[in-house]
Automatic annotation (TrEMBL):
Pfam families: DUF4440. It comes from the Bacteria. InterPro entries: DUF4440, NTF2-like_dom_sf. This is DUF4440 domain-containing protein. Residues 6-109 form the DUF4440 domain.
Length: 124
């Protein structure tokens, strides 16, 4: 199920996040998120947040992906992430979980949660 990892990582990219059609393709209309900060988002609020984002010289690094099948067309994706600044310093370490569902046409993200965690060994 590499497609789910690819789509998850695509949502980390500024270019993807600024493309409303691509975001709508990747994120289910009933989407819910509990962000790293504890803030809750739905589909409309996440679209608004992404639209207001500014380009950055840093990026989101992700690693240690694990997929767990919950049903025939539903997967839980677990991984770790960190924000990497322009100097290559990692911070904002998080454990992430996403639920992806196949709609009959494509895979869409239905739920995402980020939880702060201790610093982990970073593999750029």
């Amino acid at each position: 199920m590499d497609i789910l990892i690819e789509q998850e990582v695509a949502l980390h990219q500024f270019e993807t996040r600024q493309n409303r059609d691509e975001v709508a393709r990747l994120i289910h209309p009933s989407f819910r998120e509990v962000g790293r900060s504890g803030t809750s988002f739905d589909f409309n609020s996440i679209l608004e947040m992404m639209t207001e984002e500014q380009a950055s010289s840093g990026y989101i690094h992700s690693q240690d992906f694990e997929l767990i099948q919950l049903e025939a067309s539903v997967y839980l994706l677990l991984y770790k992430s960190a924000w990497v600044d322009e100097a290559g310093n990692a911070g904002h370490f998080s454990k992430r979980s996403s639920i992806w569902s196949f709609t009959g046409e494509n895979w869409q993200l239905k739920y995402h949660q980020g939880t702060p965690c201790e610093e982990f060994e970073f593999f750029p």
